[in-house]
Write a structure and sequence with these properties.
32 strands; 13-stranded mixed beta sheet; mainly beta
Length: 514
């Protein structure tokens, strides 16, 4: 049976700052510019483990004494890269920088007191009274905490009764919040306003699109949420927020700073009693650890945004917003600036409207890749396609992100399909795949072959009551190019129009390299 250990830290209040130490824990202004995870490309953002980074700029006002002093900037981001920190506004600049990465936590306290004496408070098994005894922490915090007392060596939290450790104080190298310390000098005591700027890991952002088909089916309302994630334990209130779309050039100068002890203290115990009491225990391995708890809802890939309750069915999933991110140019990149102050909470996410194009013109196409096939019917993929220009109702850079398409059915909006959009600049083609359609199928059959070519025939059937446009991607070199063939991203495109409840045939020849 695993017991729960309670850790009690006895603090008599914050220790006064030593001479020459200035503590800055108040931020008058903060700006955060978030860059996407360069490794995920157009993949989904990991909300529980953001892999991007951010440029954080803070404005702080502080009073420094004459002479040499250490300024402690308390409350910087957890994933701060200290080598990127720039402090401007000090009379004589910065002589030295130190990142105080060790934070106060149950695991941090155990790690900081390894091989040191602590007070163990526990309940006596015979009398039920609280008693205290000295103990030395011999191992921990990973894999359990081992204590040495006058009674021997044992694991913390395995007595079956409540117990806790008392510390004489907090070690000097532990901080309540992430801190950057700098060494500076001044010829006189003065009040200064400084700006602290640095890069920090543990942030990311993504675009999430909601597309609503019009009743006529000719246009599509395209709305996008800007979703930012902060994976650190330090939040930023009332911040100016920007995000950057594109792939800036970033080189890794070195590996990240070594990780500190985990914030959670995990206590692991052997079953109660001793092996001589239960002989079978000496022959069997320890029981497996308990399964991890189910993933919390805030770690899910999707985010559901709800509004006030309505009595009538939702006419469109596209919300009406008064504030949305404003796009600006940043060299070859795109910057989206949120026009209001927002709070980027610790371990949280924030969503802001990004764009709203109410009448984008998309066309429907049924597409199949003919790299492999056989003489059995296969469903074709329904694709929505548009040109990213003003004539089509778009004409804006579209950052990569997931898209959910809703279709009106009997006065209600139902989910028609989901896909992921790649980064699309103005003038490029936008394509949304809604999934395979069992009503439109195709078969492939080889009709002839010689040393130089193979002859193939595609038969497509349409069970829908309307005519459809079908496209087939041939990723091979064609011996002869049929009329109307075009070159696409994946190969040659064969197109045909299939009548309602009708069928069509396409023939082509593949060139053989022999």
């Amino acid at each position: 049976m695993r017991a729960t250990a309670l850790l009690l830290v006895l603090l008599s209040g914050a220790a006064p700052a030593t001479a020459g130490t200035v503590v800055s824990d108040s931020v008058s202004d903060v700006s955060i510019t978030i860059y996407r995870d360069p490794g995920r490309r157009e993949g989904a953002m990991n909300h529980a483990w953001p892999g991007g980074y951010a440029l954080v700029s803070e404005t702080r006002t502080l009073r420094i004494p004459a002479g040499e002093s250490v300024i402690r900037f308390v409350g910087v981001a957890d994933g701060m890269l200290p080598e990127t920190a720039i402090v401007s506004g000090l009379p004589s600049g910065v002589r030295e920088k130190n990142r105080d990465a060790r934070l106060i936590s149950p695991a941090g306290l155990v790690d900081a007191n390894l091989k040191r004496r602590v007070t163990l408070q526990r309940t006596d098994r015979r009398t039920g009274e609280l008693r205290e005894q000295e103990a030395i922490i011999q191992a921990g915090p990973n894999g359990g905490v081992l204590l040495q007392t006058d009674e021997g060596i044992e694991a913390l939290g395995c007595s079956g009764l409540p117990e806790r450790m008392l510390y004489a104080g907090v070690p000097d190298d532990l901080s309540a919040r992430p801190t950057l310390s700098v060494l500076t000098t001044s010829d006189r005591a003065t009040e200064v306003t400084v700006q602290l700027s640095y890069l920090a890991q543990g942030f990311d952002w993504s675009a999430n699109y909601v597309a609503a088909m019009a009743e006529s089916g000719a246009t599509l309302g395209l709305f996008a949420w800007l979703t930012v994630a902060n994976g650190g334990s330090q939040g930023f209130a009332d911040a100016s927020l920007q995000v950057v779309a594109g792939q800036p050039n970033r080189e890794r100068a070195r590996r990240g700073a070594p990780a500190g002890p985990p914030p959670a203290l995990r206590l692991q115990c052997w079953p109660m009693d001793v092996t001589s009491t239960h002989p079978r225990w000496s022959l069997a391995p320890p029981p497996p650890p308990a399964p991890p708890p189910p993933m919390a809802m805030d770690m899910a890939e999707s985010i559901v945004v709800t509004a006030q309750r309505r009595s009538a069915p939702l006419a469109s999933p596209t919300p009406v917003v008064a504030i949305s991110a404003e796009q600006e140019e940043l060299g070859d990149l795109k910057l989206y600036r949120v026009p209001i102050r927002v709070t980027v909470a610790a371990k949280g996410q924030k969503q802001v409207a990004m764009l709203n194009q109410p009448a984008a013109k998309f066309v429907c196409r049924y597409v199949a890749n003919v790299s492999a096939g056989e003489d059995t019917p296969q469903a074709m993929t329904l694709v929505l396609r548009a040109k990213n220009d003003k004539a089509s109702g778009l004409g804006l850079p579209l950052p990569a992100g997931g898209v959910a398409v809703f279709e009106p059915v009997a006065g209600r909006s139902l989910l028609a399909g989901e896909d992921r959009l790649a980064d699309r600049a103005i003038g490029e083609e936008v394509e949304i795949a809604l999934g395979d359609s069992p009503d439109v199928q195709w078969t492939l059959k080889r009709t002839g072959e010689n040393r130089r070519r193979q002859d193939w025939r595609i038969a497509v059937t349409n069970a829908l009551p309307v005519a459809i446009d079908a496209e087939f991607v041939i990723p091979y070199e064609l011996a002869d190019r049929p009329a109307g063939v075009e070159r696409g991203e994946g190969g040659w495109l064969l197109k045909t129009r299939v009548a309602a409840n009708g069928s069509a045939d396409l023939a082509y020849r593949v060139k053989l390299d022999r």
